[in-house]
Amino acid sequence: MRGMFAESMTIGDAIAWGTSLLDESDAIPAGRSRADATLLLRHVLGIPHAEMYAYRERPLSALQTEAFNAQIQQRLRGVPLQYITGEQEFFGLPFHVTPDVLIPRPETEHLVEAAISRLKDLPAARIADVGTGSGAIAVALAHSLSQAEIVALDICLAALAVAAQNAQMNRVANRIRFIESDLLAAVVDETFDAIVSNPPYIALAERKTLPIEVREHEPEQALFAGATGLELYRRLIPAAHPLLVSGGWLMMEIGHGQRDAVRALLQDADWDGVEFLTDLQRIPRVALARKR
Question: Mean pLDDT over residues 276-288, rounded?
Answer without folding.
Answer: 97
